[in-house]
Write a structure and sequence with these properties.
The chain has 367 residues and is an alpha/beta fold. It has two domains: 138 residues, Cytidine Deaminase, domain 2, CATH 3.40.140; 217 residues, Dihydrofolate Reductase, subunit A. A nine-stranded mixed β-sheet has the order 11-10-9-8-14-6-15-18-17, sandwiched between helices. A five-stranded mixed β-sheet has the order 2-1-3-4-5, sandwiched between helices. The radius of gyration is 22 Å and the shape is globular. In the C-terminal section; belongs to the HTP reductase family. In the N-terminal section; belongs to the cytidine and deoxycytidylate deaminase family. Its EC number is 3.5.4.26, 1.1.1.193.
Length: 367
């Protein structure tokens, strides 16, 4: 049996369901599932915050006995291993569904094709790899954590039309973008497990690094790349450490007394490898992957941004361009090598662009 246009419609709906908890399900992927029979949606499910329950059992439970003979649409291969919950593949078999329209094979070696194989062995008609590009986009963080031992990274950079992220050394902080772009930034933050910045951004902007949207209560982990453990105790990040989890990654030569001072006010510190005097970005991301994180939003500033792009670690890049040029010398938003790599079709693809009020945005994905 082939995949029909109607199948694609339901599968895209399942992808949209999975995105409801994107950024909140780590270390599990944000999966969506639909149970459909005779054109009627009988059950909907998506991976819940914290990673459990999984999408498939929720959708099947909602459908109940009506699931027998139905089609299940699921955005990633159902798990086949016993973890904190039984295998989703077994729940699907027990439900009596006749057909499964599935997404990508899960690269997790505990499943890795075994979920689909188990369904076929039970006599269920199985379609796989439906809308693979959209599936990879939805589950990129999970895939990279399993295959490259790091989370996916979205890099956000705000720049003036003449290419600057900040003014000269003693200039006051620039307000580059307007309300619409700033709101989009908060939405993007909410779709990630962590927000990561470097010390240059902390010292220059004194950011809060929080999601400030109506109705949003979950805050991503705040991660500061701080080689010498220089985070000021009077910074807004330090002041809010009791309310928002904060992790400072510092180099092996950081002053132990500074780490102790930060830990006393509720900030977690951890040692990390250093490269050329800065926190090694791959080592930092691998540390976060070991913590179970799958999605990181970097607002780390020009230096961190250029290094992420240069090292092939920026999986998505969102550039917000404000309406007013700086008109004088300032800090470049991206180095020339980073701009060249971003414009290289062998490295990045432009996937979206548009207007946000008076500002504009461009969205790239790593090839």
């Amino acid at each position: 049996m082939t995949v029909s246009p109607q199948d694609l419609r339901y599968f895209r709906a399942a992808l949209a369901l999975g995105a409801r908890e994107l950024g909140a399900t780590a270390e599990n992927p944000a999966v969506g599932a639909l149970v459909v029979k005779d054109g009627v949606v009988l059950g909907r499910g998506w991976t819940q915050a914290g990673g459990r329950p999984h999408a498939e059992p929720l959708a099947l439970a909602q459908a109940g006995e009506a699931a027998r003979g139905a089609t299940l649409y699921v955005t990633l291969e159902p798990c086949a291993h016993h973890g904190k919950t039984p295998p989703c593949a077994d729940a699907i078999i027990a439900s009596g569904v006749a057909r499964v329209v599935g997404g990508l094979t899960d690269p997790d070696p505990r499943t890795a094709g075994q979920g689909f194989a188990r369904l076929r062995a039970a006599g269920i008609d199985v379609e796989t790899d439906v809308l693979p590009d959209e599936g990879r986009r939805a589950h990129r963080g999970h895939i990279l954590r399993v295959t490259e031992n790091r989370p996916m990274v979205t890099l956000k950079i705000a720049r003036t039309p003449d290419g600057f992220a900040a003014g000269a050394e003693h200039d006051r902080r620039l307000a580059i973008t307007g309300l619409a772009a700033n709101l989009r930034t908060h939405v993007l933050r909410s779709l990630h497990d962590a927000i990561m910045v470097g010390m240059g951004t902390v010292l220059g902007d004194d950011p809060l690094m929080t999601v400030r949207l109506p109705g949003v209560t979950r805050q991503p982990l705040r991660v500061v790349l701080d080689t010498r453990c220089d985070l000021p105790p009077r910074s807004r990040i330090a002041a809010g450490a009791g309310e928002v989890k904060t992790l400072v990654l510092c180099g092996p030569g950081a002053d132990p007394s500074r780490r102790e001072a930060l830990e006393k006010i509720g900030i977690e510190t951890a040692g990390c490898a250093v490269s050329e005097g800065r926190i090694d970005l791959r080592a930092a991301l691998e540390f976060l992957a070991r913590r179970g994180l799958t999605r990181v939003f970097s607002e780390g500033g020009p230096q961190v941004g250029a290094n992420l792009i240069g090292q092939g670690l920026a999986d998505e890049v969102v550039l917000f361009t404000g309406e007013r040029p700086l008109g004088r010398t300032g800090v470049e938003a991206l180095s020339e090598p980073a701009r060249q790599k971003l414009d290289d079709p062998a490295c990045y693809e432009l996937v979206a662009q548009g207007l946000l009020g008076a500002d504009s945005y461009t969205h790239y994905e790593r090839i």
